[in-house]
Amino acid sequence: MKQQIIISGLGGQGALTLTRLLAEAAAALGLEVITSETHGMAQRGGAVISMVKVGPFRGPLIPAGSADLGLFLTDKTLPAHRFYLKPGAAAFVSTAAPGDYFHVDGPGLAARLGLPAVAANLALLGYVAGRAGLFCGAEALEQVLRDKTPERFRDMNLQAFKAGLEVSSGQ
Amino acid sequence: MKNINEHRILMGNEAIARGIIEAGCTLAASYPGTPASEILPAVAAFAQETGVSIHAEWSVNEKVAYETALANSMAGRRSAVSMKQVGLNVASDPFLRSAYLGVKGGFMIISADDPGPHSSQTEQDSRFFAMFAKVPVLDPSSPREAKDMVGKAFELSEKYELPVMLRPTTRVCHARQTVALSPPEILDRPARFEKNPGRWCATPQYVRELHRQLNDKIARIAMEPDFAPVFTPGDGSFPGVGIIASGVVFAHAWDLLEDLGLGGRVDLYQVTMPYPLNRDFIRRLEAQYQRLLVLEETYPVMELQLKSDKVQGRLTQTIPGEGELTPEVVGRILEKFLGRAETPGAAPPGGGVRPTLCAGCGHRAAFYAIKEAFPGGIFPGDIGCYTLGMNLGAVDTCHCMGAGISQAAGFYHAYAAGGGEIPAIVAAIGDSTFFHAGVPALMNAVMHRARFIMVILDNATTAMTGLQPTPEAGVNAMGQPAQPLYLADLVRACGVKFLRECDPYDIPALMSLLQEAHRYCRTPEGGVAVVIARHPCMLDKKAYERQPVYEMCVTEDCTGCRHCLDEFECPALILNEGTEQVVIDGVRCVGCGVCSHVCPGGAIEARRRE
Hints:
Helix content of chain A is 40%, strand content 23%. By secondary structure, chain A is α/β, with parallel strands linked by helices. Chain A has a six-stranded mixed sheet with strand order 2-3-1-4-5-6.
C-alpha cells in the first residue's frame, strides 16, 4: 500500500487537524506513515499545505505531480497547490462552487448544523471517506475521531464528518 | 517498566523532546523560533507525563539559554538548549568558547535550520557553524532518527567532554512519524561543580592548550565507528558511482530512487555526522569511486571536507547554491547524474495567498495609526508577526531581533549629522522581541541622545511561534508561577523620560499619543519617546472572549475607494466586484470594530453585539 495525499488550505483553517487524523488512521491500520506540515509565518492566513505519505516512504515531502489525492479546505488554494496532484488524480474541495473537481459545501453544511466554521473540514473528510480511493474506510476514520479528538470537539467533529459522508453516499 | 512497547505519532520536535527526557536530561532551555519552537513545550509535557524532574525554561534569549544550560552541564548534569538557526548567532559567543572549555554532563545544542527559507531571515547552515566552532554535528533525516540521535549525542558529548550539535531542518522538525517510546533513564547525578580555574576561567595562556585538546578530540571523533556513514550498497549497475547524502535530503533521495526504479542499484551513503566527516570514509571514497554526488542542505559542509575532484555538488554548480533541496530539485539532479531521461515535472504556479495579520490583530490598528500620523516617516521594524506590517507600508526594515531600535537610532544620527530635515522615525517592536534583544539597543539609543519614537507592540505573548509566555506573563514553560517583569519598568530603567500606554484599537487616541511623542522628541531636552500599544493577541481565545464584539456593516455610502482594503488590509474586508463596494466576510470578522475608524467616508459602522 502506497498513497500520497495533500491537504491544502489557508493558515489557521485546520489543515493540521486533518493531517493528524489521516496519520492516526494509517497507524491504527498498522501502515507506515510520514507527514509534513506548514508552521510559522505562512500560518497567518497564507496558503499552507500538509502532506501525508502512507506506505514505505522515508521522506515527508510529495514531489510535484505525484499526489494520489488532494483535499482542499477552500477553492482559494487550488491554483497554488493543484500541481502536486498526479495527472487525473482527484481534487476534493470544500466549497459551494462547482468546478473541475469534486466538491462538498463544507461551510454550508457546518452552518446548517449550527457548527463553527472549522467543522467544514470534517465534512470534507467525511465526503472523501465516502468516495472510493482513500487508503482507509470511513469506519477507520470515525474510530480515530472518537479516540483522538479532544472531548469538547468530539461530537461536533463526528456530526460534521457524518454529514459529509451522507453527501457522498447520496451522490 | 511501563511504556516499553508504546508507539506514538510524534512531530520531529516532539520526538527530539522525548529523546531529551528519555536520556535523563535535567535542564532544557530555549527561546522560541520556527522551526524549533515545539521542542521545549514537548519537553515540559513529557516530563509531566513521565513524572521526571527537569528544569525547562523559555529564556529571554538564546545566549542566556545557552549559558544557563551550560552551567548545568558544568555541574555534571545532562543539559539541552534548543533554538532556530539564527538563534545560534545570538548564542555564538558562549557556543564557540564552550568548544574550547568543553563540558561535563552531556550537553546538546539543537539548532534547527530552515532551508528555503520558510520562516527565517537567512538559510544559513548550522553544520557550517559547528565546523567553525569545531563541534561535532548530527544530521537526522526523520523524526525517528532525530530521537535516536539525542541519546547518542549525550553519550558522545560525555565521552569527549564536548558540546554536540543536533541539526534538524524544517522538514524533520515538522514531519510526523510513528516513534517508539522508552521509559526515561534516571541518572543519579547530584549537582557537583568541580573548580578548575585553568579550564573554566581559561585565560589566554591556557587557551592554546585547550585548542590543541579540541583539535585532538575532533580528530578522534572522526574515527568513531558508531558515527560512520550508513552504507546501502548498489547491485553493480553503476560501477564507480556513489551518492552521499545527509539530513532530510537523504530521505528525499531514497524515495526518488525508489520512484525511478533505482532503489538498491546504486551505492548510497547516509552521513549521520557531517562534521567531523569520518576519516576512513573519506579514504574509501577516494579509493573506490570515480564519480560522487553530494546532497546536503544548505552549504557544502561535507563537500569541503571531501576535497575531491570526483565530487559533484554545490562547488561544481551541479546543485543550486541556494534554496531548499526539494524532491523536485533532487529528482532532476539524480536523473542527470545517473544518466536517466528527465521526467517532465509539473511546475509550481507563481503567486498563492500571502500571509497577513489576523482579523482583529492590535498590530494592524497600531500600524495604521503610525502611518496615518507620519506619512513621510521612516519605520524600522523587527522580527515577529508584526513584520507583516510591511504589507501595510508601516515596516520599512526587518533585520534581526532588536535591530529596529538600533536602526532607528542610526537613522536619527544619519539625518541629524546630514544637516537636513529629520523625518519622523518610528520603530515598532514586539514585547517578546523587546525583552530578547531590545533592552541593550534602547539603553544605547537613550545614552547617545537619539530622538525617535519606539512603539512596543504588546500582545502579551510570543505570537508568531505559537503563544509562548513572555517575561511579563508571570508563568514559566512548566506552567508554574514566575516572577513577572514589566515592560514599563524596563523602559524607564533604560532612561526613557517619555512613556505612554494605550490600546491601539482606539486609533484616534493612539494617533494623538504619537503626535505628543513626536513633539517630545523635538523639544530641546527630548530623546527617545516610548509608546506601549497594548492589546492581547487574537489567537489567545480567553483574551478574545473578554473583549466587546461588534456587528460590523458597510453602508450604502461605500464608494469603493479601496482605502480600507489597501491601507488596513483586514482579511475580513473584501471587495464585492459586482457592486464595487466593500463587504464584511462574516466568517472571518471577529467584530473588533476597529475598521469603523478607518473608512474616510464613515461607511463602516459598528454596533455592539448583545
